[in-house]
Amino acid sequence: MSAQHLVETRELATNFYTFEGVVRALNNVSLVVDQGETYGIVGESGCGKSVTVRSMMRIVQAPGRIDGGKIVMFLNAEDKAKGIEILGRTEAYMASIRGKDISMIFQEPGAALNPVLSVHQQIAESYEFHRMDEMLEKSIATLEAHAKELGGGPAGWWNGLRKSLLRRELGAHKNYSARIQTIDNELYKLEDSTDAASLGRKRELNHERDKPVRRDFLVEFARRVPFFARYRRPLNRTVEAQVIDLLRSLGIPNPENIAQRYPHELSGGMQQRIVIAIALACHPTLLIADEPTSNLDVTIQAQIVDLIRDLKKTAISSVVFITHDLGLVAEMCDRVTVMYAGDVAETATVKELFRNPLHPYAQGLLDAVPKEIQEGELTIIPGAVPNLIRPPSGCRFHPRCSHKMAICEKEKPPTLELGPGHFVACHLYTKDQSK
Q1: Which helix or strand (DSSP H or E) is residue 424 part of?
Q2: CB–CB of 37/43 below 8 Å?
Q3: Which of 61, 197, 395, 427 is the residue whose CA sits 20 to 30 A from 316?
Q4: How far apart are alpha carbons 357 and 424 in whole angstroms?
C-alpha cells in the first residue's frame, strides 16, 4: 500500500510564536496523498489548510515553526519504498525538490510574482535551476547542427569555442549532480540510524550537501569577461524557446509578447496562468493548488479549473486542491479531507462524503450548500472558528456542535475508520462514551 503513497504527514504540528501567544495552527495532522489522485482539503478560513501544504513544502514563514511529526515523501517508490522524511533534510535538499518534484500555485498570484522581473525571467529560473543539463544539451546540439554551415573561418572558430565552453559547463553540472545523488543515497540509507557514528556521518553529508555548486574554472573565467560571456547566448535562446512553448501550451495568446511583460501589466487571470506556468515548468509529480480561483471572476475561474483538470491528465501525477467551494470538490477531487481549527475532522472519498457525512462539522458544511431542489432555508453553523492561541480543550469543534457531550470538552477524539477509507474524528462514534 505504501508504494502507492506520494506524500504523507504523520502527527504534524505547526505553531506560530507571536507576541500575543503561541498560535497552535496544526494539531497533529495526519493525511496521505496517493499517486495519481486529486486530493481536496476544505474548511473555513483559519482551519489550517494553507498551513498544512506550506508545511509539506517547508515554506512556513516566521514566526511559524514545524514543532513535531513527520513529512514523508515517496518520490521514487521503486527503490525508496519507505519514503524520505524531509524534516530531517537540509534546505538545499528542499530547494532541489521544490519546483521539480512538488510545486505550488499560490493563493494570491499578484503577491506570488516578483514585480521587478519579467514573466520570462521568472519562468526561466525553474529551467535554469532544475533543468540546466537538458538546456545545455539542447544548446550544444544546436551549435553542432550549425558547425558544417559555418566552416572554418572566424564564425566557425567562435562556434567551436562556444560549444567547448558549454560542454565544460555541462560536465561540471553532471559531476555535481552525480555527487549530490551519491550523498542523497547515503543519507537515505542512514535515515533511520541513531548511533553516534551514523549521526556524525549524516552531519558531514548534510554539510557537503549545502555547499554551492562546483563550477569549471575556465567557464567561470569566461563568464566574467564580457566578450567571452556571449558564449551563453545559445543557452539563453534555448531557455527562451522553452518558456514560450510552455506559455503556448497553457493557452496563453501571443506568448512571445506576454513573456516580456511584467506582472502589473497583466490581468488577474493572466497572472494566475503565469503562476501555474512557473509551477509546471519542471513537470512536478505533485501540484498543490491553494485556492487558485480566489478573487477571479466566474468565467476565469472556470478556465483555470479546466486548465488544472487537463494538466492532471497530461503533465502531473497528483493534485492537492484547497478550496472553500464544495462544488469544485465534487467536480474535481477523488478524496477529500475536512479540516477544522487545525484538526482533521473527516477524510473520505468525495462520493462517500457527500452521500454520508459523519462528522457534525462536515454535515454542517454540506447543509449550508444550496441544493438543486432546495426546500426551506439554508442552515448555518453557529459561531466562528476559535482563536488558536487559546483553542478549546478536547474536541476543538465542541463549542459549535449540537451533539456536544461531556467527553468532548475533555478529550480529543481519536480518528476511527468507519468504512473503507472513511475516517472520522468524533466522540459520537467511539465505543466508550461513558466517561
Answers
A1: strand 422-425
A2: no
A3: 61
A4: 9
CB distance 6 to 300 below 8 Å: no
Tell me, what DSSP letter sits at residue 107?
S
DSSP states along 46-102: TSSHHHHHHHHHT-PPTTEEEEEEEEEE-S-TTT-TT-EEGGGS-HHHHHHHBTTTE
Cell of 341: 481549527
Q: Specify which residues 85 forms β-bridges with.
A: 72
pLDDT (tens digit per residue) in 297-354: 777 778 888 888 888 887 778 899 998 888 889 888 999 999 999 999 999 999 999 9
Distance CA 346, CA 159 (A): 62
Give every CB contact of residue 252 below 8 A, 6+ residues apart in sequence. Answer: 258, 270, 273, 277
**How do residues 52-93 score in pLDDT, each as one tens digit?**
999 999 999 889 999 999 999 987 655 456 688 899 888 888
In the chain, the amino acid numbered 382 is: P
Element (H, E) at 26: strand 22-34
318-322 and 286-290 beta bridge pairing: parallel
Q: How far apart are the C-alpha atoms of 239 and 74, rounded to whole Å?
A: 30
Helix 132-150 × helix 119-130 angle, to 10°: 100
Backbone angles phi, psi at 157, to 5 degrees: -65, -45
Q: What does the block give as the cell for 108?
A: 494570491
Lowest mean pLDDT among 146-150, 245-249, 260-264, 283-287: 146-150
Q: Which residues pair with 14 in a beta bridge?
A: 26, 66
Rounded (10°) angle between helices 119-130 and 233-249: 110
Single pTM value for the model: 0.87
pLDDT tens by residue, 83-119? 888 998 888 889 888 988 899 988 888 888 999 999 9
Euclidean distance between CA atoms 191 and 253, whole angstroms? 48
Distance CA 423, CA 279 (A): 31
Length of the chain (residues): 435
Q: How far apart are CA 320 and CA 38, in angstroms?
A: 6
